[in-house]
Amino acid sequence: xxxxxxxxxxxxxxxxxxxxxxxxxxxxxxxxxxxxxxxxxxxxxxxxxxxxxxxxxxxxxxxxxxxxxxxxxxxxxxxxxxxxxxxxxxxxxxxxxxxxxxxxxxxxxxxxxxxxxxxxxxxxxxxxxxxxxxxxxxxxxxxxxxxxxxxxxxxxxxxxxxxxxxxxxxxxxxxxxxxxxxxxxxxxxxxxxxxxxxxxxxxxxxxxxxxxxxxxxxxxxxxxxxxxx
Length: 229
Ligand SMILES: Nc1ncnc2c1ncn2[C@@H]1O[C@H](COP(=O)(O)OP(=O)(O)OP(=O)(O)O)[C@@H](O)[C@H]1O
Known about the structure:
Layout: E1 2-11, E2 14-24, E3 29-33, H1 40-47, E4 53-60, E5 63-64, E6 76-79, H2 91-98, H3 104-117, H4 119-123, H5 134-146, E7 152-156, H6 164-179, E8 183-187, H7 191-195, E9 200-205, E10 208-211, H8 219-228
Parallel strand pairs: 3-8, 3-9, 6-7, 7-8
Antiparallel strand pairs: 1-2, 1-4, 4-5, 9-10
Bound molecules: adenosine-5'-triphosphate.
Adenosine-5'-triphosphate (ATP) is lined by residues 11, 16, 34, 36-42, 189.
């Protein structure tokens, strides 16, 4: 589904990523970990055209989209790091903003689907997004990214700054999305929580992306870890 080959990223000539290669398939969770400033955000933002690509290519459903505009990447969605939601919009308005090009009827039905997935958002739908707690705001970011019904979600540090309970709720939601066949690429500095989810994981260090050893847990090991968490 997503095939990244020898992708290099550079900000104003300063290399951040050298020749990263990996794939993400439907229903697969791929984790990128690495210290602060290693280039995790730059890498995932390059995949949707927000960071400057210095070489290599991004293939999306077998099409080269490396230098194509964002609309050529329909089916990809980004959940950015931190609380980037416009604080004065209500929860409902913030979701509508994520809906994209669907008609009113389709939009209403997807919105209801989001409220079914995230009941807390329905109870807060008329309130400003800016007053949500960290965990609720993360749920809203996730719901907003799901509104156009993507097949690949890219999540930048989805559990950063959350309480253990809120982080667990996000992780459970990602597990559910995986069972629905949505592929996910997520960055996580504190790799432990993310690695319990990972089908494959890579570490970014010295601009290079390296497969992580030891291998990621098997599905059975993940289930045991989830039960004992
Ligand atoms: N818009 C930008 N313009 C210039 N340089 C940038 C820009 N965004 C990121 N960088 C640089 O790219 C490098 C990697 O930053 P990036 O945010 O991708 O790392 P990260 O691994 O996501 O860090 P963190 O874990 O702290 O969020 C840093 O040196 C940063 O200063």
